[in-house]
Amino acid sequence: MPSYTIHSKDELKSIAKTLIPYIKIKPVVAFYGKMGIGKTTLIKAICKEIDVVNIVTSPTFTLVNEYITKSGDLVYHFDFYRINKIEEIYDFGYEEYFYSGHFCFIEWPEFAESILPDYTLIINISDDKKGKKKISFPD
Q: Fewest CB within 10 A of the end CB: N or C in the chain?
């Protein structure tokens, strides 16, 4: 399982570039990590690397934000933190997003685990006792 330790925010660009080939193969990406660990920050760095032209923000209250890249590709950014039951995910038509072929970045995917595509890339973000962030994912 590849893993990367981040010592500062300046390293996010490099990590994002490293993740792009994996994300191209598995465009639905589930980001796991505790509150404030940097899920949105990493997604912002990835979006910058794939040339998203919009301002990237956490869709905490809207559930999904839609972005567009310079080349016209769509990118979907989900935040399921406020989801209380899986039916809420069914109600907004998750299949149209998850199976669209477009990048789908999902924060707080715990409620959606049973409906995530088999090809979903799982990214775990954690921190050590010294506060350094560790990003890991199955190869």
A: C
